[in-house]
Amino acid sequence: MDQDQDFEELAKKYPDLMQKSQQDYIGVNAGWYTILDVLFEGLSGDVERARYSLKFALENPDNKYIKPIPELEAALADALEKLPTIVQIKEKFGGLRVYADGGTEVHQAYINFAAAMAARTCEICGNPGELRDGGWMKTLCDEHHKELEAKSSNRKR
């Protein structure tokens, strides 16, 4: 898949997060999209749980163990309000940068964890990688690092 397809897939899978954020581009290579998928799932978790609870309550109105509908609607509205607004996602100095406004401490913990995972993941293929310095800082696996070095040495000739 290419970056446009990956972006579209994330936009379809996490519509509340992506619509609030109004993102139309994510500036990272395909190797980090799995990390972004997990991040978005974490960021959207409270909304999805609240939406599921409301849907279940509406489908089972006689269940006395379910919270009242207005309380569940308020919980969904609160979860949507607390959802962070993603301002920008990009690679910088070989690391994943996710800039977001709002959200909770838990949301920030998810963002920090995603950045930590990206620091150990090849930007290109998603295999284990490490930060490499070959003129540009990149997080790459051994294979992609060798390819980049070969391209760089061919340009110097």
Characterise the protein shown here.
With 157 residues, the protein is an alpha+beta fold. It has one domain. The chain has six helices and four strands, in the order H-H-H-H-E-E-H-E-E-H. The chain has helices spanning 3-13, 15-21, 33-59, 69-82, 105-118, 142-156; strands at 85-92, 95-101, 130-133, 137-140. The strands form two sheets. A two-stranded antiparallel ribbon has the order 1-2. A two-stranded antiparallel sheet has the order 3-4. A hairpin with a 2-residue loop joins strand 1 (85-92) and strand 2. Helix 3 (33-59) packs antiparallel against helix 4 (69-82). The radius of gyration is 20 Å and the shape is elongated. The mean pLDDT is 91.
